[in-house]
Predict the structure.
Amino acid sequence: MGGASLLSALACGVSSSSIGAPPHSFLCPTPNRRRKSRRKVRCAPITAQFELKPPPYPLDSLEPHMSRETLEHHWGRHHRGHVDSLNARIAGTQLEEMELEDVVVASYNKGSPLPPFVHAAQVWNHDFFWRSMEPGGGGKPSGELMGLIERDFGSFERMLKEFKEAASTQFGSGWAWLAYKANRLDVGNAVNPCPSEKDNKLVIAKTPNAVNPLVWDYSPLLAVDVWEHAYYLDYENRRADYVSIFMEKLVSWDIVSSRLHIATARAAERAREDERRRREDDVEITNREAVEMYVDSDNDSEPE
Amino acid sequence: MGFHLLSPSYCCGYQPSPPISHGLLRFRPVTGIPKPSPQKGQLHQSRRASKVLAYYGITTPPYKLDALEPYMSQRTLELHWGKHHRDYVDSLNKQLVKSPLYGHTMEELIKVTYNNGNPLPEFNNAAQVWNHDFFWESMQSGGGKLPQGGVLQQIEKDFDSYSNFRDTFVESAMALFGSGWVWLVLRTEEKKLSVVRTSNAICPLVWGDIPIIALDMWEHAYYLDYKDDREKYINTFMDNLVSWHAATVRMLRAEAFVNLGEPKIPVA
């Protein structure tokens, strides 16, 4: 187990531009030409299936804060069920050749989710959740993460309070998140008129059922599962206690820091891309204007 | 131990002196507070506002907490009723202290706070209080088996057969993602029975339909007893817990509001 989550001899990096395709096409069976080329490859068996990755620690290592029984059910039944359902639903469609995050965003379909969405999102969410915890976790973050927390929330305690509040007030099933928001709009020509370093900031969000902040183009840093199955065996109805213990004794701040690092790097990269693209567009417009002016001046010189 | 006929839980206003306290407009008597004005919609502010007024009370299920063993354990009922249901009542009362929604019956409160699809903050709590009241009364020890008389006839008319209805109900419950409820409702416009599932706290009252049976599909309702085996929980509910007596009473009342078209249905 472990390793790449996607095995496919035909795996190709799907650029974000392809996600612009009409959404229902993802669920159509892969076109014939692909199947023909599959038959030629006889050596490697082609499976485009997602795997059930185990948590990076033994199932009883989070005791007494999260019991082995909870992990056995939560990972072994709930998470596994979603992986199996996801594989069944995307088999034979274009979605099965995409990375999990791309499947989540594509099947979210900008707010009208397609059937594979709940399973894809829950697989991603649970993977993320197991990796947000570690035995002997808790304590406080440090370095860049702590700096950002203090900048955006005032203090670590205030961030904790807001996080617990979000987790407690998520009515029904869902998740609470700490995420890094790079303040982008999902519209081609949108430009932030007064960009500043503070636009890229930490936020706390809560989401219902299977939704996660990837669909809003945030970079999630930390998640807590507030579906009742996550805490009912250990804490019964005391969700607030569960979230407190999660923050005090289970959360892995090292991993959160490394996620933040990746998120800020990604945000910087995308900002540079945008800048470059805007400059190219400007040059193009300038060239076009020059041509038009040339044509206009010709017309003007014609006699009436 | 017989099943005594309950007044339907959404009966408003008048109550026979109940052996069970019923969660309608009642408050704990507080000494020194003058009587409230009887007009609806006016928030009565008392000068001695230090005492808490309880606007709605928690009802007790019509059976002891261990009466549904082994299908629903006593521990589940202790938590589900004693903690979750009670929390909803307490939270609702806390919210109502500050809001002008005083003086409604529970059903009215749900419709008002649903606000045609843009729910006010009190909606979740109010609806969950009502849903849970309804749910306790939808179950009985020695329940399950088949409905009788008029309910069975109506089910056979609207679903072709009881087993068809049962399959539809189970499928609907299994297909529910997240937290929610599954209902057998009498649709007032189409004048027929139907299975609906709702998310979180929504209940069919908000659309003007009349619920007949409810099943709580929030995980807290079954996790201690069945863990993630929802199918077993739903089947157990249908085979051993659902109270067709309660369903009969509710159909009886519903017929006063919906003309089912065939006066020959013997309901009782």
In short: The beta strands of chain B are 180-187, 192-199, 210-216. Chain B touches chain A through 19 residues (CB under 8 Å).
